[in-house]
Design the sequence.
């Protein structure tokens, strides 16, 4: 890794400042300082870095493409809402040195920290932070400082005993392996050791049969249990000698419980596990609103970063709002507002790089040339002057019947938009029907919906009959946008290939007045829900009430963290993160009797009981911007999000001054009437008796993905990113 490298930090085409960048000796921190003043400007931790992108992969670096070659440019992408860092190295060699070095540093972070086999990098990081005088040793005063930093308020006598036990050299300081011994003693998990001893005859090891008993009785593993036990020993027992005897030590047992196999999230559901051959309307589809915005709806920044982040989160339905730009070039921004603009061609280029790492849904005209074989082409496409555009080599014919499935559309781009004529007209030739004009809402957002797709010839203009391009219309092969004028009219005159967009307020009214009809409608036709135009701050509505009636495309502002996006991430974290989740059977039946306001209308078994014992927490993070020396008072809240009868939450008591290893041992119980629609959200907060509790971490998942037994819950930040090694340890039981 290059140290003290002079590079250009770039914020705009005109703002390019030279800065010295250096990796600190702890290999965990990078600082940079001004070349002119020598003053340190800022620093960031390697743990804050999500990825590194090479070349011109940001708007700023793309604007400098003619001035600086891609080999010298790279972008450091941070977790959460922190802005990217665009850098230009002095040479291609220096750029590669930094790019490769950063990749090597950030890749090992996925290793789970346990008291059995702690990450050497993690220990070194804590040692560097605690070693105030930088002499490579740690005295007891520095140990006390370390405990405060680690969110531990430990009795001084107990801390001194741990210190003296680890000080094998009796030098009054800790160094090297002595610090490792101290750290292991500090992270000892008594509650896990007690569980281990309940199944171990000698209290020192689990034999193969003892491990099988634990897996069957507590983890409710009922198939291939002996084979699973052998796999767990081979995978998680750190001692080769113990592993060769086919037994599991306490360290190996803890490693298993902290692993994906010991997670509350069923590991089999992480992969693609659902049937992908159902019609599109039978799936919930991960969807974003005004995807290009990374801030508010009025003056916020438009950025390709919005598309990259949404796609990496598994979003399948994106919005691209195109308007006239200089020299006839289409620009993407929020119309009739002061948001910044980005060229449409940059959006297309970005989608080309990221769309099928997870997926996407796009908008032409430039896509006709750029999307290539990804586009879901009709059998005949007309050019801007009405001429027939021949099929291109390698463009497979994609079925466009009402039963079109995600499997058939894999690696394809589907356009939702207004259309001249019905779908059948595309197959037989152009029609003459005028595009529908939505009257879903009288607000500003509805007006935006009416003007959303705007093209004229090769230019882009008002959305009226004369200017809606035939070529664009011909590309709408499944999702023709139509106005919604009631369920009866839709059933009589609409087709499965059509889709209606509803503002959140209108959707709520339909849910209240005609819940069952709404569910039936969504069993055969797509519905899109979008936020109120009053949400200028890019806040979100609850997606759960829309999912409760089977709405497939529930568009959210992905840039805004909060409970709503936690629910979205929680629902779509399953099924390979493909962005499609199959609705339960009673929501795919056009004659269903189900109404979310009447859980008894659901066909199937009766309510189930979810019992959660919240046992302990491990290394919970401090609250952002907290005072030096402040230690959190954590509590756990478990929330159920589902049909109205299932909405509930319960909390544990708070544990005073212990964010490192709090113990609750409290049992919470919930009754679920419609478990197929339920999401469970675990939230850790810092209790405050005089003001609102502070957020510490959360984890959300669909009830269907919960694995019973003793499980760890690996917490996420407010932005949905991992915060290792923070976790909760729980025991889950599900009974009918």
Sequence:
């Amino acid at each position: 890794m290059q140290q003290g490298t002079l590079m250009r930090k770039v914020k705009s085409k005109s703002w390019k400042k030279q800065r010295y960048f250096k990796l600190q000796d702890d290999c965990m921190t990078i600082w940079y300082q001004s070349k002119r003043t020598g003053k340190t400007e800022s620093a960031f931790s390697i743990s804050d870095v999500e990825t590194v992108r090479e070349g011109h992969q940001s708007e700023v670096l793309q604007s400098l493409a003619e001035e600086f070659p891609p080999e010298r440019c790279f972008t450091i992408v941070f977790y959460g809402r922190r802005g990217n860092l665009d850098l230009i190295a002095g040479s291609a060699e220096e750029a590669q040195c930094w790019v490769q070095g950063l990749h090597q540093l950030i890749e090992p972070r996925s290793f789970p920290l346990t008291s059995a086999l702690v990450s050497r990098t993690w220990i070194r990081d804590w040692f560097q932070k605690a070693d105030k005088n930088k002499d490579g040793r740690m005295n007891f005063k520095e140990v006390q400082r370390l405990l405060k930093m680690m969110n531990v308020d430990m009795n001084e006598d107990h801390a001194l005993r741990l210190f003296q036990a680890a000080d094998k050299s009796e030098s009054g300081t800790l160094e090297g392996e002595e610090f490792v011994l101290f750290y292991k003693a500090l992270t000892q998990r008594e509650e896990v050791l007690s569980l281990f001893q309940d199944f171990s005859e000698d209290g020192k090891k689990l034999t193969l049969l003892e491990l099988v008993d634990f897996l069957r009785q507590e983890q409710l593993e009922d198939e291939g249990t002996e084979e699973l036990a052998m796999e767990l020993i081979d995978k998680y027992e750190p001692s080769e000698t113990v592993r060769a005897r086919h037994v599991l030590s306490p360290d190996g047992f803890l490693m298993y419980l902290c692993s994906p196999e010991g997670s509350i999230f069923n590991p089999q559901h992480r992969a693609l596990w659902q049937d992908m051959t159902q019609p599109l309307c039978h799936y919930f589809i991960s969807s974003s609103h005004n995807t290009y915005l990374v801030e508010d709806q009025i003056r916020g920044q438009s950025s390709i970063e919005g598309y990259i982040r949404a796609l990496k989160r598994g979003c399948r339905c994106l919005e691209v709002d195109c308007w006239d730009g200089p020299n006839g070039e289409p620009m993407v921004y929020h119309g009739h507002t002061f948001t910044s603009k980005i060229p449409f061609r940059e959006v297309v280029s970005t989608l080309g790089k990221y769309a099928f790492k997870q997926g996407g849904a796009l908008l032409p005209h430039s896509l006709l040339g750029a999307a290539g074989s990804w586009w879901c082409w009709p059998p005949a496409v007309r050019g801007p002057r009405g001429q027939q555009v021949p099929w291109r080599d390698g463009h497979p014919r994609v079925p466009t019947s009402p039963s079109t499935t995600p499997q058939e559309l894999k690696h394809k781009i589907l356009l939702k938009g207004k259309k001249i004529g019905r779908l059948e007209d595309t197959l037989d030739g152009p029609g003459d029907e005028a595009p529908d004009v939505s009257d879903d809402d009288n607000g500003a957002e509805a007006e935006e919906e009416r003007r959303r797709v705007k093209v004229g010839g090769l230019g882009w203009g008002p959305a009226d009959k004369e200017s809606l391009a035939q070529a664009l219309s011909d590309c709408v092969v499944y999702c023709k946008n139509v106005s919604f004028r009631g369920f009866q009219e839709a059933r009589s005159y609409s087709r499965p290939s059509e889709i209606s967009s509803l503002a959140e307020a209108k959707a709520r009214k339909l849910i209240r007045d005609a819940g069952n009809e709404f569910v039936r409608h969504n069993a055969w036709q797509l519905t899109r829900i979008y936020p109120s135009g009053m949400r200028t701050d890019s806040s979100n509505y609850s997606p759960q009430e829309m999912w409760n009636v089977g709405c497939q495309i529930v568009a959210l502002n992905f840039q805004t963290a909060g409970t709503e996006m936690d629910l979205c991430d929680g629902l779509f974290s399953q099924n390979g993160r493909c962005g499609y989740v199959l609705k339960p059977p009673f929501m795919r039946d056009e004659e269903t009797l189900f109404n979310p306001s009447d859980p008894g209308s659901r066909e199937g078994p009766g309510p189930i009981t979810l019992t959660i014992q919240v046992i302990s927490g491990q290394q919970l993070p401090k609250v952002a911007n907290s005072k030096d020396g402040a230690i959190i008072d954590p509590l756990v809240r478990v929330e159920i999000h589902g049909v109205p009868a299932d909405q509930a939450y319960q909390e544990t008591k708070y544990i005073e001054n212990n964010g490192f290893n709090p113990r609750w041992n409290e049992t919470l119980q919930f009754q679920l009437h419609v478990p197929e629609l339920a999401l469970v959200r675990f939230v850790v907060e810092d209790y405050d008796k005089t003001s609102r509790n502070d957020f510490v971490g959360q984890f959300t998942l669909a009830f269907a993905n919960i694995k019973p037994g003793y499980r760890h819950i690996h917490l996420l930040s407010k932005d949905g990113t991992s915060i290792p090694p923070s976790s909760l340890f729980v025991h889950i039981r599900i009974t009918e």
Summary: The chain has five domains: 5-106, 115-187, 190-262, 280-379+403-425+469-587, 605-735. The chain has a mean pLDDT of 83. DSSP finds 21 helices and 27 strands in the chain. The domain at 115-187 is CATH 1.10.238.10 (Recoverin; domain 1).
